[in-house]
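Problem statement: downstream parser choked on a complex file, so we are re-checking the raw output for the adenosine-5-diphosphoribose run. The parser issue turned out to be on our end (a line-ending mismatch), but while we're here, posting the original submission so the record is complete.
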Amino acid sequence: MAKKVSIIGAGAVGATLAHRVLESALADVVLVDISKNIACAKALDLSDASPIVGHERSIIGTDDYGLIRSSDIVVITAGFPRKPGMTREELVSKNASIIKDVSLNVKRHAPDSIVIVVTNPLDIMTYHSLKTTGFKREKVFGMAGVLDSSRFVYLIADELKVARSSVKTYMLGSHGDTMVPIISKTCVGGKPIRDLISKEKLDAIVKRTCDRGAEIVTLLGSGSAYYSPSAAVFKMIDAILNDKKEELVVSAYLKGEYGLDDVCIGVPCSIGGTGIAGIVQLDMSEDESKNFLRSAQAIKNSIKIL
Ligand code: APR
């Protein structure tokens, strides 16, 4: 039987992800939005492209959660982006009520699915969805580290004029101002990055990576990034549906790993058919560890707002 991916939120990220999943013929898609017309319109448009592209996958647009039944994966992108002048607290409470509503529907209609959360603030919304669904922690995790690591890789490769595939790195911690680049594990063609780029240049690349989302928001004028976030979710879906057990950085619920409890935060995990197959305990330098713990504390402070 064809695999089934349900995407909640037919906005920029959700619809671009639907496009990727369909046109790679990875799975059938159900696109759910509070605005039924938007979900239906995008589903029709993507269906009309299928004979040209040459795939036989199906997509349905709807506002009916009953149609997500027996999904292998549910991706949650529903929510508001942060607007100028809006505090983080305001965004947390606005999106928290959406995540609660969506997660209760996932629990009711797709209790065996794996849930990938994309809505921001990411780590807090992932925690909220995990607690609301009551699913096992292996089955609810957030997309951020794949994207943040990719942004960092791109900027390093661009600076050194090397192949992007030759750059290995990890961007851990929160998907926000306190994300943590693991410089001690960053290599280009097997050589430590510190031997290849000056500290000043590397600091500037790290800062640009952390600010990349805001850089795109400013240029767009309204809305936020969607090509790279949807590519990152696609990679996670591919790892799950093809049981790749691939090491990817995701926002995972920790129970003692890294000395942390009761928090969702970006760490490397093995991602396969059952969701999180294992959490990788990465060695970090003393400074990196300190920054990681600071990042976890920032997430915990925001969780208290829920
Ligand atoms: N149920 C279902 N859909 C909803 C709900 C809800 N309760 N509330 C809002 N939506 C839908 C909106 O109708 C809209 O179509 O969520 C969609 C969000 O789409 P966009 O505004 O285009 O946002 P997008 O760019 O896709 O980002 C979505 O992902 O990267 C994060 O920060 C980003 O939190 C944001 C999320």
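For whoever reads this later: The chain has a mean pLDDT of 96.
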